[in-house]
Structure to design on (100 residues):
């Protein structure tokens, strides 16, 4: 009778150990899947961040090109205005010399 009780206890302990091992393996697999999903999400965010960074650089370059173009137009306009004023000044000097 003691042997039967002992065998039942050992059997129960073995069953509990097997159940615990199975639960541990399932929990480990679940956490590994969660870690893999988080890793994939992180990589996706890193990829999106890199795309946005490149887009911002492109936008900045285009903006700088546009500013340069506008500045170039302004400089050309000022240069033309200076030429016109110099021509007008020359005509005024010529007229002034004629008047003298």
């Amino acid at each position: 009778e003691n042997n039967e009780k002992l065998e039942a206890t050992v059997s129960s302990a073995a069953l509990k150990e097997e159940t615990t091992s199975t639960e541990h393996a399932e929990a480990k697999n679940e956490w590994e899947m969660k870690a893999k999903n988080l890793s994939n999400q992180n990589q996706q965010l890193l990829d999106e961040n890199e795309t946005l960074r490149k887009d911002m650089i492109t936008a900045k370059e285009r903006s700088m090109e546009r500013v340069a173009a506008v500045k170039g137009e302004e400089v050309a306009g000022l240069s033309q205005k200076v030429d016109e004023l110099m021509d007008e000044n020359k005509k005024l000097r010529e007229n002034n010399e004629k008047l003298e």
Observations:
- The first helix runs from residue 2 to 99.
- The mean pLDDT is 92.
- The two ends are 145 Å apart (CA to CA).
